[in-house]
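Re: weekly structure request thread

Next one in the queue (455 aa):
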Amino acid sequence: MKFKSFALTFLTLCVASVAAGTKAAQAASLSVVADQLNNPRNFDWDSQGNIYLTESGSGGDGNGGVNCIPSPSAQYIPLCSGKTGSVVKIAPDGTKTPVLPNLTSVALVPSGEQGAGAADFKFDSKGNAYLLMGLAGDPNNRDTVLQAPDLGKLYKVDLNTGSLTPLADFAAYEAANNPDGTDLINNPYGFTIKGDKAYVVDGGSNVIYRVGLDGTGIEQVAVFPQQSIPTNQLEFPTLPEGTVDPTGGAAPPPGFAIAENGLPVSQQSIPTGITVAPDGSLTVSEYTYFPYPEGKARIYSVNPDDLSIQTIADGFTQLTGVTYDAEGNLYALQHINQSEWKAIQQGGVITGDISGSIIKIGKDGSRETIISGDGLEAASGLYFGPDGALYTSNRARLAPGERGGQLVKIALNSAGAAKVPEPGSVIALLATAALGAKAMKRKRQQELLDKVETI
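Done, posted below.
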């Protein structure tokens, strides 16, 4: 799930497990809806209650170095393409049916970790389906080296025929414009639909795109703000004894600084999850850059008309999803509760605790840990289902196996954890949650009626 950083040399490290902080009383219970998923990511429901879930896939086997590029975030471990991604339909009884099989995927070899490909799937209010494909690499290598021209795009999907109609090419836009002015990396990660527009967050390019679903393509782009933290205030892994220059003499890409230990560090935002807030604005979560400082991830409010960006909350760690309940409370998903390098080595070797958590941020600014650990691990994407429970893709960066990907349901309990005050560093009081419960419920009911009438 590393969205963007620089080449690191940590394969020889043996990182000890680090405690993820004080664990709050559980306010929810977790159950598995589907398992043995292949790098599962974002999803949506149709009007019959079926879940359409994207599997980014485990890439290819390398085929002797063909169709492979050096990973931009995992010390040049090969990132190879293959037809291992898919969209799968999960019925209410848990039955899995492939809907769009054999989609292009790129992932680390040989672990299949950190797959990029099918990243998100959404229905609009008329029942039309859309698929977002990620990339996680230099867009200039997409068509040539990877031979995967379908990556880095948004498509309209014909579920009857399986045909894909491209609506926007984000990889080509990044290659031609590089809007944040740093290294050329493209990785569309999630999107939401508001009216006839799609809003796509890109954790490689560090931007949000507005796309016309009527075929007008990319209409506007905005860059998320960088976060400048002095390198001497960041915590890094211990490098192998005798390491003098961990970059091998390579010059850092644009926008990167060199820490005292020689490691390159960026200040990039890395946006991940996105949802429409009760007042019609957009809410976006942030992962943060290497070394993924704990307590530094932010939540943004984005104006859908001009894409102006405002930070509305901070103090989180590696967020990968945001959503609202019917009363207008915000929920944020922490992928892992500690800096990921403390838990997973480059190449997918789990060496520590990969537990994540879900935090509820009330309209009054209070915070409540709904669940921390207890089976929630390296999750991505957070949504309320028709049944009122939360759903997320668990172990979202892992291929099938002993700890393979899952779709999990988090049932909220009536007795929750004790609320704690919002940190003083929070810039605003979640004005995006201004609407009351009745207005939010009417909106959701109308959306469901629209889907039923048009499907």
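The chain has one domain: 28-234+268-454. Residues 60 and 397 are 15 Å apart (CA to CA).
Next request, please.
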